[in-house]
Structures are given as C-alpha cells and as structure tokens.
Description:
Chain A has eight helices and two strands; from the N terminus they run ααααααααββ. With 169 residues, chain A is mainly α. The relative contact order of chain A is 0.13.
Amino acid sequence: MSGNVLEMLRSDEFALSAGFLSTPGPLRRFLAKSREVAAVRRALKEGAITEETLRRFVAGLMSDLRAGERFPHELPLAAVAVALETRATDFAEEFLHDLACLRVAEMGLCTRVARECLKRRTSLTRSKSRSFERTRLAQEIPFSVRTSPSNGARGAVGVAQGTWICGAK
Amino acid sequence: MFEQAKLLGTTERSITVETHKGTRITNVIEPEPGHQQRQFYQALLAKYGGNWEERKPPTGVYNCAGHVWASRRTALFEPDEWRLILDEDGYRRLEAPGEVAPGDLVVYVESASAEILHVAQILELRPGVAPDRPRVAWALSKWDAKSGEVMHYAYDVPYGKQGIEFSIEWWTDRPGSRASNR
C-alpha cells in the first residue's frame, strides 16, 4: 500500500490526467484536488509512509537527472510538493525550500510548483490557519525565517511578507 | 536535498522580453523533451486531441505564451504577466466570438482563480456545422513547453475533460471603435 501510493505518482494514468497544465497555479490546484496527492497526504498522516520513505523516493527520482535533458519526473516531484504544502515539519520545509530555490532549466516545472506551494504555505501561516498537520513540533512559526541554508549554495534563507528568498552562499 | 540538481548550478537561460511599454517579462528557455516525453506526448494526443491536426512535433524552448508573444524564442510562465502583455501591448477584448478574425487571440481562463490557463492564436474561421450556423474559430496552440504545435477548434481544448471549469476570452490587436474597447 505505502509503495503504491508513491508509485501512483509515477504512473502514466496520473500524468495523463494532468494533461498539458504547465503554469504553476493551475497545476498546483489540479494536483491538490487529485486523488493521488490526497492518498500521499493520507498515508503520511496515518503513518503508512514516513518522511524517510519519501526522501528515498525522491532520491530515486533524482538519480535520473541528466544535465541538458528535461527531467522525466517533474510531475511526481510537483505532486510531492503539493502533498507537503500543509505539513509542518522540517522535512517538508526543507523539501519545498530546496526545490523552490533551484535554478535548473531541466526541472523548471516542479520548481515553479514548489514556489507556488511556498506562497500558499506562507499565506496559510500568516492567516494563522490551524489546519497544519503537526506530526512533531518543529518551530513556533514553522516557515518564517531560516537563517542558514540547510546545505549547498542556494538554500532558502528567509520568508517575509508572503515571499521567500533564496540566497547565494 | 536535491544535491544532484544543485551540482548542476544555474542552468536556466532567459532573453530580454519586454512589453510594448517596456515592462520586463520573466522567461525561461526550456530544454528539449526527451525520448520518453516525446512518446508520452502521443498518449496525450490520443486522450485529448482526437480532432486536432499536428503542425509541428514536440519541441522545447517555448510554451503557448512564448509562441504568441515571444516569437517561439522562450517560454513565459507567469499568467499575471500575460495579462500585463495584453494590457501594455494594446490588445482589446472582443465582446463576442463573432468579432474574431484570423490573427486574434483566444485566451482560456480558469474560473476558480481567474488565472489564464492558455493562449492560442486564431488561424481562420471555419464553416459552422450547418450553412446558417456561425463560423467556428480554428486555432494554433503550443500547449506547453514540451508539446508540439497543433491546430484545433477553439472550443476543443483539454480542460473540460480534466474537470477544470474555464471561460474563453477573445482578444485582438486590431483597432476598434472607442465604444468597443474593453
């Protein structure tokens, strides 16, 4: 069951359902309503999959990244971003910020969706929504400020007024 | 996370695109689709494009907005900026489909957000289903930055099949009477 939930994100059926949607807002909304993303959210909430499972899944996808070639798993990554959008954990924050801060043409679609998710996440936080799934206490204001990138040259360093900033080291 | 991608550094490339009034437009030159994506495009055509006619096989570089406003040189991904282009390039919205002429634009708008989903160029007006029926706009679309270009009836688009509510706007750069503007 747990593996199936993530493998569904790689299925042709899922990709066909998304069709030609390629602007970040409409694609994010479409994914947020999809049963596949709902299943991932539910599986995470119920513990059927863990964030470590997700991390391995993402690492597996990323192994297919080749310079100069369009990344073949953009939709699954975008779907994971949407699934994590309302999840208040360090992993979700790291995933969204790291993905959103990439400037890699090969992965443009999923990075744009991650930026859209961050905008949504920030607005949810600012409106003091209680809908976040708190699986563990991360920070009092989970997405407000990160003073140092988690790794690499382009970590996210801050969120202010509904925007987020990627800073070069 | 995404260490492999970080190792690539910045690979995004853009060119200068501005509106007629000089506002800079965000853009990215998109990579070419791979073999797997070209094959999958055929499945998308089979699902959504039974009545479409292919003009050009899958290609990278540009998307719908890049086709219409950037001469196929780059992709424009910000629908808010698409609205800005319509405004700052002097387009005017047509009141009715009957006013449409070749060269005009058809703009598909997501009802839930009022955000533009897609833009295509009108190629011709084809005869209606019967002699007394209105002519139907035939459009040229580049659906996304890895699709091909296809010709289709303006109403024959994927969004309804995907459960997305949308509306259609018609825009032209042709001069109109003052009364017909907006």
